[in-house]
Amino acid sequence: MPRSSRRRRARATVDLRVRIGSVELPNPIVAASGTFGHGDEVANLCDPSLLGAVTAKSQAAFVWEGNPAPRLSGAPGGMLNAVGLQGQGVEHWLAADLPALRARGARVIASVWGHTVEDFALAAKMLAPAATELVALEVNVSCPNLHQGEQMFAHDAGATAAAVGAVVGAEVGVPVLAKLSPNVTDLVPIVRAAIDAGADGLTLVNTVRGLLVDASTRRPTLGAGGGGLSGPAIKPVALRAVHEVARALPDVPIIGTGGVSTGEDAAEMLIAGATAVGVGTATFLDPRACLRILDELVDWCARHDVSRVADLTASLTDAPSM
Questions:
Q1: Is 41 exposed, middle or buried (0-12, 13-18, 19+ CB in 10 A)?
Q2: 46 part of the active site
């Protein structure tokens, strides 16, 4: 039997639906912010209507140039980036990029950032008129290559609560997700602060702080110095964060993100405690990675007699594998 026929049969027997707060997604695979383009650039190659959702690149209430070049470098087990959240701002994104994504049938999660609490509030308010075109709003308080040499919002519970609260207070009318950092000693208190401030769910995690050195010049490889490490190398970090948070706050939906490259990786993220799975760096290697990972997850579920993908969430036992 052709593989495509087997996939159709597997999909027919596996219920892929998941819920993020009040929103039901048709499947758990979500394109991660910053990896699927601003609008429909990657959607030309990877049909977004077949994914659970697409998280757009984080935008501020203003135009931002980002960091100096070079911004990307290969790293063992992934890549290091210091793009610095370059973007044309929310107004441009609403006019030029969101319509293109929606025209392709994407379920869109907008993402906002800012230098100040007021920046977050303004960006969210600017999105309010487009609420019917969105399924959720991500509050990105955790970009490690934006805050070089200074503490980011996500490293402090009070600052996280203030930024999340500002977005919630804008009353956009869609679930609010806090995107948090793994670069802290104890993530749970920061998560609690985000939830207490009104977040409906989480994106865990952003990239891990790192540095690459050019030995011949004795200078950093990237123009901004350090950057954020992503890719397979950080999967254990992401799994640990997702599991710890899911164990502490079992009712909070999590988009588990970090190092997912295969369907089995996605299954592991769900088992650790995620409700849905973000796919990021894998898209740079293969623009259709999200669809491939979804197919592989379906195959994995069929092989392991999993009839509902939601049943995988937080099914990890404490006993080690033998």
A1: middle
A2: no
Tell me what pLDDT residue 320 has. 65
> Half-sphere exposure of residue 320, counting CA atoms within 13 Å on the CB side?
1
Cβ neighbour number for residue 130 with a 10 Å cutoff: 18
Q: Given pLDDT bands bounded at 50, 70 and 90, which one contains residue 63?
A: very high
Sign of CA dihedral 11, 15, 18, 22: positive
Integer CA distances (angstroms), 108 to 28, 124, 172, in order:
14, 15, 14
Q: How far apart are CA 217 and CA 298, in angstroms?
A: 48
- Of 10-14, 35-39, 70-74, 318-322, the poorest mean pLDDT is in 318-322
Domain boundaries, the chain: 3-67+85-209+232-311
Residue 154's contacts (CB-CB under 8 Å, 6 or more residues apart) are: 141, 142, 160, 179, 180, 181, 184, 190, 206
Given the residues 46, 143, 290, 301, the one annotated as active site: 143
Residue 2 — very low, low, confident or very high, per pLDDT cuts 50/70/90?
Answer: low
d(CA 253, CA 234): 21
| Model-wide pTM > 0.90 | yes
Top-confidence residue, 146 or 1: 146
Q: How confident is the model at residue 231 (pLDDT cuts 50, 70, 90)?
A: very high
The C-alpha torsion from 26 through 193 and 269 to 136, rounded to 10°, is: 20
Fold of 3-67+85-209+232-311: TIM Barrel (3.20.20)
